[in-house]
Amino acid sequence: MFTGIVSDIGEIIHAEGEEKLRRFRIASSYDPDGIEIGASIAHAGICLTVTHKGRADHGKADAHPGGWFEVEAAAETLRLTKAGQWQVGTKLNLERAMKIGDELGGHIVTGHVDGLAEIIAREDVTPDDANWGATARFTFRVPRPLHRFIAAKGSVTLDGTSLTVNTVADDTFSVLLIPHTLKVTTWGSRKAGDQVHLEVDLMARYAARLAETA
Questions:
Q1: What are the Cα distances from residue 62, in Å, to 35, 38, 58, 66, 206?
Q2: What is the mean pLDDT of residues 81-108?
Q3: Phi then psi for 106, rounded to 5 degrees?
Q4: Which residues have a catalytic role annotated?
Q5: How far apart are CA 105 and CA 164, in angstroms?
Q6: Is residue 109 part of a domain?
Q7: What is the pLDDT of residue 59?
Q8: Residue numbers of the domain that contains 26
Q9: Is 92 in the same domain as 160?
Q10: What is the pLDDT at residue 19?
C-alpha cells in the first residue's frame, strides 16, 4: 500500500526483455541497504517488486549519487500500462511502500493501475509573487467507464501522485498542481497529449460495487 506522496524521481539506466517480461534497472537516491529484496516500490503509480539492488560505481563519470535496484514487469503490466514504453533515460515518480505508523499524507493507494488518462490541456498560472513559481492546471480525459469513479473534491492517483480533483465534466476532470509538486515529481515536464497512469480512489471503487449489487 502507498499514499501517493512521491519521495524520489528515479531514472532507468538499463532495460531489457520483450513483450512477455521486461527488466528495468533504476537509479535512485534511496539507500540500497534500506531496500529489501522482494520490497514493493511504486513506479509512476505501478507497484513493482525489487529483485536486485546495488550501489553506484563512483568510478564512472555518470554514476548516480545513490544506488540502484531492479524490477520486472510481466505481460499484463506491459499491456495495460506505459511500462512497455519505458527506456533508458525515462524518469519515474517513486514511492516506497507505506509502513504501519507512517503519516498518511495523501490517500490510500494500491499501486494497481486502472487505465490511462490523457492530458488534454495544461494551463500554467503565475502568481503575483513570481518567486513562488508557477502552478499548473491539468485537464484530463479518462476512459469510460472509469469516469464514474471521479468526483469533484475527491482523490485520484495520477502517475503515482495523490491529487485532489477540482472539476468534473462527463469524462474529463481537472487538477491543480502547486510549484513544489511540479518541482519534485515528473509533472513539470508533462504536456497536452501525454498519457498518465490512473488509479481511481479505492473507496469510490467499493462504493460503486456495493451500489451495483444492492
A1: 22, 27, 8, 12, 46
A2: 91
A3: -110, -110
A4: 2, 40, 47, 49, 74, 112, 164
A5: 12
A6: no
A7: 53
A8: 8-96
A9: no
A10: 84
How high does pLDDT run on average in the chain? 91
Question: Is 80 found in the same domain as 127?
Answer: no
Q: Domain containing 198 — which CATH number? A: 2.40.30.20
Backbone angles phi, psi at 180, to 5 degrees: -60, -45
Ordered DSSP codes for 43-106: ETTEEEEEEEEEE--TTSTT--SSEEEEEEEEHHHHHHSSGGG--TT-EEEEEEPP-TT----S
Residue 101 resides in a domain: no
Q: Mean pLDDT lowest for which of 26-30, 126-130, 190-194, 209-213?
A: 126-130
Residues 31-66 pLDDT 10s? 999 999 999 999 999 999 999 999 876 555 455 667
SS3 label, residue 39: coil
Does the residue 106 lie in any domain? no
Q: Do residues 16 and 69 share a domain? A: yes
Burial class from Cβ neighbours inside 10 Å (0-12, 13-18, 19+) for residue 26 reads: buried
**Cα 183 from Cα 176, distance rounded (Å):** 14
